[in-house]
Amino acid sequence: MIRVVLPAHLRTLAHVDGEVTLELAAPPTLRSVLDELEARYPMLRGTIRDHDTLERRAFLRFFACAEDLSHEPPDTLLPPEVAAGAEPFLIIGAIAGG
Q1: Which terminus of the chain has a smaller tally of CB atoms within 10 A, N or C?
Q2: What is the CATH number of the domain that holds 88?
């Protein structure tokens, strides 16, 4: 079981409160988490990744175990603590401004 924490605007869009839990085949990767998240919550398609390229949206970041995974390849394995459900996979809205 993978625990996923979404930013507030995506929780609202997906009609969920708190963390989302996903069942994934081992070994879980960035791609498998995002694929399952979009399959389970179709209203999130296109909000986390581009519809065509499946690239991460510019103002979202991915973190696991205090490590920024935002620029890692999609088939990057998640840390064992995240795969075991001990630590969450975080999708965080980036803050921009000036």
Answers
A1: C
A2: 3.10.20.30
